[in-house]
Write a structure and sequence with these properties.
Largest sheet: 6 strands, mixed, barrel
Number of strands: 10
Structural class: alpha+beta
Distance between the termini: 30 Å
Shape: elongated
Strand content: 15-25%
Strand order of the largest sheet: 2-3-8-5-7-6
Order of helices and strands: HHEHEEEHEHEEHEHEHEHHHHH
Radius of gyration: 32 Å
Oligomer: single chain
Low-confidence stretches: 185-195
């Protein structure tokens, strides 16, 4: 068997340019599939991390404005906080607005939150302090700035103590920066910086006082056990329906469930793109068949000589299959390596974690080799069936 592979290597070395081009075509196909799978996996992990950061706990409660004009308020918040299964709840107010500093103006999302918001929203404090209960109770004109906002205005992260003017209800109001946070959405902001605004956080009491909103947009609920999120959500709806003084119609959204749906959608997109890229593997297989047929035609006399001195059909068949196997194996291994390397470079550029399944890589290489060998079967059998007398007559 080792002699068959050594002979196959020598035969491939005779036509180096042709062999290299065939290997290159296989490598491109495998690289495409590997790259798509790696990027999809890294993107999926990044999106999930961002959703967890932006994710507002496991359940969100909001008033259905399509049916009722009622809004959430403190009474609903207190009801939710007392329910079994609820770990914490915090009011959320959101407004698309603008922030001004140093004569510069930028689009931003202003979040009105409570002092316990960091238990529900991912707020990683970099500099300064988060909101205290006194800030919330006193409607303080203080804010937390996303690190990307600080970088945009001052080209540095630590701008604690600076003043920022926020557009609320048509009027710019001045707030003091008491903390810099690394909040959810940073990767998405890095990729879509021109389209996704940065975040500024202020006490929800201040936002309610300075804006025309009388209630909360949402109440974010962190459940004690994630697997019980759906049951807790149903319990919240039941309690609000029976006891809410506003008599409004409310909606409960299970963020974990929505994340599962998004992951399923991302998996489908990954499979479709991988299948499209996998077409190139079929094209590579056709290339191997063409090369093998040309090789059989060129080596007809050589095959006749080998058969005349005792080579069996089996020997000739395995020799050509070994050539196709080596081409497929080298090409697919090189393509998988190149795909992983390019995916690693992309992840490094966007500060994402590379996630490549070794099982997937090995499966991709295996499928590529099987395709190569399968497409080489016909040329190999054609060579094995040659009549030695007729082959020796070939010029």
């Amino acid at each position: 068997m080792s002699g068959t592979f050594l002979c196959a290597l020598k035969n491939l070395g005779r036509k180096r340019s042709r062999t290299i081009l065939t290997i290159f075509s296989i490598a491109i196909g495998v690289m495409s599939v590997t790259l798509i799978a790696a990027i999809s996996a890294a993107g999926k992990n990044a999106v999930n991390a961002e959703l967890d950061g932006l994710g507002i706990g496991a359940v969100t409660v909001s008033a259905d404005q399509k049916i009722s004009s009622a809004a959430l308020n403190e009474s609903e918040l207190r009801m939710i906080e007392t329910l079994s299964g609820v770990d914490s709840a915090t009011p959320i107010m959101v407004e698309s607005s603008r922030a001004a500093m140093r004569g510069l103006v930028a689009d931003t999302m202003i979040w009105g939150i409570g002092s316990g918001a960091e238990q529900v929203i991912s707020l990683n404090s970099l500099y300064g302090d988060l909101f205290s209960a006194l800030d919330i109770a006193g409607n303080a004109r203080v804010c937390l700035i996303d690190s990307s906002v600080a970088e945009a205005f001052y080209h540095r992260e630590n701008i604690v103590g600076k003043k920022v003017r926020l557009l609320l209800d048509g009027v710019f109001e001045e707030f003091e920066v008491i903390g810099i946070v690394e909040s959810g959405g940073n990767i998405l902001q890095g990729i879509m910086g021109d389209y996704l605004p940065s975040f500024v956080y202020i006490p929800f009491t201040s936002m309610r006082e300075l804006s025309s909103k009388s209630g909360f947009d949402q109440i974010a609920v962190k459940v004690k056990r994630e697997e019980e999120a759906e049951q807790v959500g149903e319990k919240i709806l039941e309690v609000l329906k029976q006891n809410s003084p506003s008599g409004g119609v409310f909606r409960v959204q299970n963020i974990a469930q929505q994340k599962d749906r998004l992951n399923h959608l991302l998996d489908i997109v990954t499979v479709i793109l991988s299948l499209i890229a996998g077409i190139s593997l079929i094209v590579s297989g056709l290339g191997i068949m063409t090369i093998m047929l040309v090789s059989v035609s060129e080596r007809t006399r050589e095959i006749g000589i080998k058969k005349s001195i005792g080579a069996s059909r089996k020997n000739i068949l395995f020799e050509f299959i070994a050539e196709a196997l080596l081409i497929s194996l080298i090409g697919s291994a090189a393509g998988a390596g190149a795909g992983c390397f390019l995916a690693w470079l992309g992840c490094m550029a966007f500060h994402m974690e590379l996630s490549v399944s070794p099982v997937f890589i090995l499966t991709c290489i295996f499928i590529s080799v099987v395709i190569g060998v399968a497409f080489s079967a016909y040329p190999a059998m054609s060579a094995a069936r040659l009549n030695p007398v007729d082959a020796l007559r070939t010029e």
